[in-house]
UniProtKB/TrEMBL annotation:
Oligomer and partners: Homotrimer.
Pathway: Cofactor biosynthesis; adenosylcobalamin biosynthesis; adenosylcobalamin from cob(II)yrinate a,c-diamide: step 2/7
EC number(s) recorded for this UniProt protein: 2.5.1.17
Keyword list, A-Z: ATP-binding, Cobalamin biosynthesis, Nucleotide-binding, Transferase
Superkingdom of origin: Bacteria
Alphabetical GO biological process terms: cobalamin biosynthetic process
Entry-linked PANTHER family: CORRINOID ADENOSYLTRANSFERASE (PTHR12213), CORRINOID ADENOSYLTRANSFERASE MMAB (PTHR12213:SF0)
Domain Cobalamin adenosyltransferase-like: 3-166
Catalytic activity: 2 cob(II)yrinate a,c diamide + reduced [electron-transfer flavoprotein] + 2 ATP = 2 adenosylcob(III)yrinate a,c-diamide + 2 triphosphate + oxidized [electron-transfer flavoprotein] + 3 H(+); 2 cob(II)alamin + reduced [electron-transfer flavoprotein] + 2 ATP = 2 adenosylcob(III)alamin + 2 triphosphate + oxidized [electron-transfer flavoprotein] + 3 H(+)
Designated name of the protein: Corrinoid adenosyltransferase
Protein family membership: Belongs to the Cob(I)alamin adenosyltransferase family.
Pfam families linked: Cob_adeno_trans
Amino acid sequence: MRLYTKTGDTGKTSLIGGRRSKDNIRVEAYGTCDELNAFVGRAVSLMEDETFPDIKPELINIQHELFDCGSDLATIRKDPTYKVKESMITFLEERMDEYIEEAPELERFILPGGATVAAELHVCRTIARRAERVCAALMQEEEINQHVFKYLNRLSDYFFAVARVANARQQVKDVEYERSAIVFRSPKKRF
């Protein structure tokens, strides 16, 4: 099997249902999901099984789901069958709710960083936000699977939660943004 096809030598690429210019916003959207997938793989490669027995397999599953996002974004045929479903979003929300309880209480903005794994997960968070922004722009021009957009939104939040847990599990404190006021208040402290 050859890795090269030469079909992209004219500046166009094949999608599911047609061809588009390689600088088309739809191509940018699924390309950003692919970039994110590579960074998730990098984060996974740095994780020790003993410290991250739950997070590591979740991230590998997320890599598969990011391929699903890319597939849905690369589909331009009429009456498509999409892969990304509401249940994938619900799973991220449920996991975030658990991870929020594990991490120390958050009052101020934090800087991306801490332990190496946490820093990598913050990179994933920012790329997920970019993928979301590109999809928002794409939605202004064409229809997409709305579950992909919601998934990317939740995914960036998931990476934030997991990055904080990674620091906590490795006994590394989050670095608070020095000029941040208290912006997050615990519901427990309000009364």
